[in-house]
Amino acid sequence: MGYSVEVKDVTLSYKQFKAIDQLSFRLTANKIHGLLGRNGAGKTTLLTVLASFRPAKQGTVLIDGEDPFENERIMEGTAFIYDQDHTYNYDKVDTLLKEMRYFRPNYDVEYAHSLAKKFKIPLDKGLDQLSKGKQSAFQATIGLASRAPLTIFDEAYLGMDAPTRELFYQEILAEQERYPRTIIFSTHLVSEMDYLFDEILIINEGKLLLQDSNERVMEKGVSITGAQADVESFTDTLEVINSHSLGGTKSVMVYGALTEQQQREAQELGLEIGRLSLHDLFVHVTKEEES
Amino acid sequence: MNQTITRSKKLGWGLLSEQLKWAAWFLVIMFIILIGLTFIAGIQLEDFLISNNASAIFMLIVGILYTYGFLDYYVKFGITRKNFFKAALFASVLLSIVLAFFFVLMVLLLEGVFSLIGIPIPWTEGISENGILSALTSFSTFTITHFAYFLIGWLIGLGFYRFLWKIGLLFVAASVVLVSLLELLHGSLFSTAPISLFPDAWMITGFPAYLITALLFLALITVNYRLVKDVTIRLH
């Protein structure tokens, strides 16, 4: 059901500023892709091209094998959910939830209502009257219930409190099992959502820095925890990207995989080797590019 | 293809039903204002019908709002610009006709009420004075005026949405020229007073006026489509 995405040599400039610079990548259908990048990295610009909000003037975009711009099938199958301003939307939530049937062929109005209940969104209120968090939950509801073959969430959780965000994430996973689709999730809250992603893309200054499966990205480094002196001596020659100390214990994030010999040494020293945090990796690779 | 046609039609009816609600409000408010001005204030409205500004300005505003209120909304829900354009054209033609019909009906009703209670009609060239032909003429000229102002409003709205305010202002200037041109073809139904760009001597009447009007409409529709077809939808 999900759409595949192919972006080839896409460049997009705002006057002199290149928001996207010769960007190329492919997204496999029916997976959740985490799109990470710092502020101004070009994430939203890229997503507006995928959602046909703007044409790709330089380069090619193919969604499900076709140019998406002004393509009826692809556009109605692409839902772009972002932090929208609803100040002037006076329609009642219930009306809006029902109206979506017209726009999205796979839209499930009953599921939308059940989500609205879960998110505690009042159906009889105007959208403009809802709190910021409830407006975000409304957006998430539309995004999920549309069951669009390509669903894009761009910082869609802004304003939601932590329990609502958690509910949203759980719902994404449950929905993905029921009706698999291609989801692109652009976010800053890396540490909170890393378990959602099948694939990860990191972009910086409009260029692709890294694209791989979540597992392979996690293999790009390790966490090492143990007695402070042992950890420090062991990691002396390694590329440490973050460290925390508590009492005599130290935990460090290391960029780069350990050799078999290094793994044996660590074991002998009684050091605990764990998974790299995506957050730390993200900060590290984007920082490196900055310098 | 069939699905595309059905979608545009459905969208067109949806757009029309929304604007008919606005039009109903407009007519009710106009009715109350006209009754109030005549009965309570005893004001003479003289050229109220000759220059029919009220419903024309209503259509101008509908046209301006089309891009910010509707195009923006629908494309965000996956409707193509082309489908929206077709639906908008369909809805606006029908709205121009329906509004002209009910506007004429409202004026006839008011003129009937005035003559029934024996007070003079407070505007010149009342529709009921010259029978059915006068009503039909008013209906057709109002329809043309409505559609013209709608297209001009749509052009201005698109100019601002697509190019932001500085270049948007140029679209306002272009619209003043367009209305002045229409004034040459249809007289005081279109007016940019106190600005007078073209001398009265240039006025064209009869069939050539309607032919040029049709060509102007065609040109405006083409320009509006050119502005819509690849417009960047703004994130707000």
Structural class of chain B: mainly alpha
Q: What spatial form of chain A do the alpha-carbon principal axes imply?
A: globular
**CATH class label of the largest domain in chain A:** Alpha Beta
Helix segment tally of chain B: 5
Q: Report how far apart the termini of chain A are.
A: 42 Å
Which consecutive residue ranges of chain B, at least 5 long each, have pLDDT under 50? none
Describe it.
- The complex is a heterodimer of chains A (291) and B (236).
- Chain A is an alpha/beta fold and 291 residues long.
- Chain A has 2 domains: 5-215, P-loop containing nucleotide triphosphate hydrolases (Rossmann fold); 221-275, 2-Layer Sandwich (Alpha-Beta Plaits), CATH 3.30.70.
- Chain A is built from 11 helices and 13 strands.
- In chain A, strand 1 and strand 2 form a beta hairpin.
- Chain B has one domain.
- Chain B has helices spanning 2-40, 53-76, 81-116, 131-186, 206-228.
- In chain B, helix 2 (53-76) crosses helix 4 (131-186) and helix 3 (81-116) crosses helix 4 (131-186).
- Chain B is globular, with a radius of gyration of 19 Å.
- Chain B starts with a helix and ends in an 8-residue tail after the last helix.
- The chains are: A alpha/beta (291), B mainly alpha (236).
- At the A-B interface, helix 2, strand 5 and helix 3 of A face helix 1, helix 2 and helix 3 of B.
Helices and strands in order:
The complex is a heterodimer of chains A (291) and B (236).
Chain A: E1 5-14, E2 17-27, E3 32-36, H1 43-50, E4 58-63, H2 72-76, E5 78-82, H3 93-103, H4 109-118, H5 132-145, E6 150-154, H6 162-178, E7 182-187, H7 190-193, E8 199-204, E9 207-213, H8 214-218, E10 221-227, H9 228-234, E11 239-246, E12 249-255, H10 260-268, E13 272-275, H11 278-290
Helix pairs in contact in A: 4-5
Chain B: H1 2-40, H2 53-76, H3 81-116, H4 131-186, H5 206-228
Helix pairs in contact in B: 1-2, 1-3, 2-3, 2-4, 3-4, 4-5
In short:
Chain A is of the alpha/beta class and 291 residues long. Helix content of chain A is 35%, strand content 30%. Chain A folds into 2 domains: 5-215, P-loop containing nucleotide triphosphate hydrolases (Rossmann fold, 3-Layer(aba) Sandwich), CATH 3.40.50.300; 221-275, Alpha-Beta Plaits.
